[in-house]
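How a chain folds remains the central question behind the approach discussed here. No coordinates are needed to read the tokens, only the vocabulary itself. For completeness, the protein is quoted in full, as a sequence line and a line of structure tokens:
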Amino acid sequence: MVWHNGQLAHASAVRLSPFDQGLTIGLGAFETLIAIGTEPFAFSRHWERLQHSCRQLQLPLPERTTIHQALREVAAANHHVGGRLRVTVTPGAGPPGAARATTSPPTYLVTSAPRPTWPATARVITLPWPRNEHSPLSGIKSTSYAESSLGLAHARHHGADEAVFPNTQGHLCEGTGSNVFVVLDTCLVTPPLSDGCLGGVTRALVIELATTIGLPVRESSIPIAQWSHATEAFLTSSTRDIQPISVIDSTRLPKAPGPLTARLISQWHERQAVTVDP
């Protein structure tokens, strides 16, 4: 069951225009969330980011309460308690080429799936091509995901679980579907948004959590050549939560999870147990 433009329907009954610009030119925005029961976790933060993406891409959005209820309905209808939820927004049908749709109604979709199972620790490699921090899509959760898809395929081909992009300045940027944290000189460090990474919801929550429990944390550029020198490292995303990194390129980290990462994971699960909208 999916939610399409205000109606709950079976996926086989949903029809999208062959001229939908989400398909023809990859123009759209999306959010991936997890459900706690059937309640979308951290919905307010995901909603704020979806609003930002849609403003930048000039896409209209329904009311906040409409999307919130659609997420609940889809999770319940599919019995995906604790599952993976997705909201997708496109301009709808448009003309050939890059010109924007102007008269067709937009497309709104809410779907769900079982939550993916990730390995206990991740093997990560550095990609040989950069993420452009100056791109107009930088910081936007865009449906134009081919670059990430190619990056993940490259990682899998080389026996890794995830790949990270440098940016054009040679700094660590982000994973194909994750943010990256490293421990350098006993301090937790993650790239700043100005280096081109997405403002991940889990990333922001981890920064806040680290501050709350007294762990030193900063947002700072990390030269790509230095990130394999970390004593600990981990990935964050909505479906991963906090996933320790065990191998960076050919370097095996001393311990995965390390003591700081293990403490964050424990505190993270405690926080999720008491709130669904932190």
